[in-house]
UniProtKB/TrEMBL annotation:
It comes from Piscinibacter gummiphilus. Its main location: membrane. This is Uncharacterized protein. It is found in: Cell outer membrane. InterPro entries: OMP/PagP_B-barrel, OmpA-like_TM_dom. GO terms for cellular component: cell outer membrane.
């Protein structure tokens, strides 16, 4: 075989090495927490509407490139009152996060992932898996500290249905 047959493979390897080197940007590991309010768009056991109290999440992630990160976390999706009593939900998630820098300080966020959600109602408790998606923005205060504002939608398969559970949050992200 001639060397020319290896040129595409060499080009792909150099490109992959170049993409890998972009991951060496400042502080690829990060953690954070958000607080907010839940909204149960669809009824769960007869309960829907704006949630009571506070919802939130804690998360950790790894930013692979300036435009891609993977994030895992725990979300408390608050509770909502219904005719039969309060419905509460919480769970774990794993997301791929797309980052689109607008300026040196502002970045748009988009996420797609999976979640495992536990739902507690007065009549029964259940858990289910489902898709999760979201969008938001991030503002860098310093190189390591950013503020985030996000909307996320969880669609767990619970009680034979796939209700939309929304969460609107603001929080902080810390790179290390």
């Amino acid at each position: 075989m001639k060397f020319t047959a290896f040129k595409p493979a060499l080009a792909a390897a150099l490109l992959a090495a170049g993409l890998g080197s972009t991951a060496a940007h400042a502080e690829p590991f990060y953690a954070g927490a958000n607080l907010g309010a839940p909204r149960y768009e669809d009824g769960i056991q007869g309960s829907n509407g704006h949630g009571d109290g506070v919802s939130g999440k804690v998360f950790g992630g790894y930013q692979v490139t300036p435009n891609i990160a993977f994030e895992a976390g725990y979300a408390d999706l608050g509770r909502v009152a219904g005719d039969a009593g309060h419905v509460k939900a919480h769970g774990e998630y794993l997301d791929a996060v797309g980052l689109a820098p607008i300026t040196d300080q502002w970045t748009l966020l988009g996420r797609l992932g999976v979640a495992h959600i536990d739902v507690d109602t007065p009549n029964a408790d259940t858990s289910g898996n489902g898709l999760k998606l979201g969008a938001g923005a991030q503002y860098a205060i310093t190189r390591d500290v950013s503020l985030r504002g996000e909307w996320e939608r969880y669609r767990p398969d619970v009680f034979g249905d796939k209700p939309n559970i929304d969460q609107f949050t603001v929080g902080v992200r810390y790179g290390f």
